[in-house]
Amino acid sequence: MSDKTVVITDASTNRSATLPVVSGTMGDPAFDIGKLNKDTGYFTYDPGFMSTAATKSAVTFIDGDQGVLLYRGYPIEQLAKQSNFLEVAYLLINGELPSAAQFQTFEHDVTHHTMMRESLKNFFQGFHYDAHPMAMSMAAVGSLAAFYHDSLDINDPAQRKLAAIRLIAKMPTIAAAAYRYSIGWPIRYPRNNLEYCTRFLHMMFEVPSEPLQLSPVAAKALDLLFILHADHEQNASTSTVRLVGSTGANPYACVAAGIAALWGPAHGGANEAVLKMLAEIGDAKNVGKAVERAKDKNSGFRLMGFGHRVYKNFDPRATIIREMCHKVLADLNVSDPMLDVAMELEAAALKDSYFVERKLYPNVDFYSGIIYKALGIPTEMFTVMFAIARTAGWVAHWLEQHETPDAKIGRPRQIYTGAPTRDYVDVEKR
Ligand code: CMC
């Protein structure tokens, strides 16, 4: 909170409100409008939260104009180069990088909560064979609340931490089970002698009949993708987790709601949409036509993987991932015609005035889908992959929310545009 205030006066009624200015450590300040309605009779109207901070948070900072992304103050570029996903998860949750001993304990805890109860595993049998893995993952995560009564008391910090660990630990197990079920393969148990990403790849691809040959590049690439997707401050799914969390709902319900919000193509579903779009374009020679279609507002077609609500210059994650994308394809010796389409599309959009003027640059999802494809992960699983990574951010925000004294239930207001008060009319008179 700063000493600055802003006074808003309604000249017609002479009612005014003195709004304190709230400043964080970095970023734009905000007016605290908590008493605005009481003092003036006005609400604020901000569809899509274009100018509204819904909370204070110390987890992640974004400067969209400068292309800056910090987790707990650490630049994403440094974390991508020097850290690993589990360490980043620890950082997001606890606020500081772990010592070697703290990391060992955290890794041990996550590793030893990876198993699913057998009866939860059996839930998958209830789905139709072609169920989307997001639907299965969302349902399975929500159902964890039915199994872990020892971590449902949200007023107990130890139970909250336990739930956070469980969610980070079990998400890969659930995700891999959803995939295996959808292709009719037996669900694999997590192998605790492996690290987080390698363990996940084993659960995805290992078959009982032969050992899995796994390129170390695959786990490294996955780890990088998970770091880049781990958190992104108050995005739609994290805000959903917080909104549900504000009601006092249990952590598994909150994260299941986050998964639901992530599913949409304007959010986490974009990486799946990118691949579908590239397949639809089909060949680099069709890129020009696709760009023209995306510029035509009547076509209803947008270039998936371009543009971002917050990054209006460039997405720093896209810069890191673009480099990794080329490395992975070279190291895994993958030649993918979709990549040619993607590269052609990227080049065409970057020099087209429509995209340049609107600052529509490739975002993180433009490249992540191509890497996932190179790793053998099917398109329907892309958003699930995002959900595994984002679970770290979701639980970090959920924990932060419950450490905040006097937190209120989230309850937006509205501008009512319906019929004014009217009398009920009997059916024979209508
Ligand atoms: N292709 C063509 N035109 C676009 C696109 C696009 N991908 N994105 C925005 N525009 C145009 C839009 O039509 C509008 O034009 P005009 O000013 O003439 O009306 C202008 O650019 C601004 O668009 P907006 O919809 O007001 O921007 P927004 O900040 O509300 O939306 C967005 C951001 C990400 C939803 C949008 O850019 C989009 O739909 N992109 C494609 C989907 C996508 O890649 N989503 C993943 C986001 S990154 C992952 C994450 O963090 O969740």
UniProtKB/TrEMBL annotation:
UniProt GO cellular component terms: cytoplasm
Listed pathway(s): Carbohydrate metabolism; tricarboxylic acid cycle; isocitrate from oxaloacetate: step 1/2
What the record says about family reads: Belongs to the citrate synthase family.
Superkingdom in the source lineage: Bacteria
Residue numbers annotated as active site? 308, 365
Which is an annotated Pfam family here?
Citrate_synt
Respond yes or no to whether keyword Acyltransferase is given for this record.
Answer: yes
Query: Do you know which InterPro entries this protein is assigned to?
Result: Citrate_synth-like_lrg_a-sub, Citrate_synth-like_sm_a-sub, Citrate_synthase, Citrate_synthase_AS, Citrate_synthase_bac-typ, Citrate_synthase_sf, Citrate_synthase_typ-I
- Native source species: Tahibacter soli
**SUPFAM superfamilies in the record, alphabetically?**
Citrate synthase
Which Gene Ontology MF annotations are present?
citrate synthase activity
This enzyme catalyses: oxaloacetate + acetyl-CoA + H2O = citrate + CoA + H(+)
Instruction: Give the GO biological process terms.
Output: tricarboxylic acid cycle
Keyword Acyltransferase (UniProt): yes
Which keywords belong to this entry?
Acyltransferase, Transferase, Tricarboxylic acid cycle
What protein name applies here? Answer: Citrate synthase
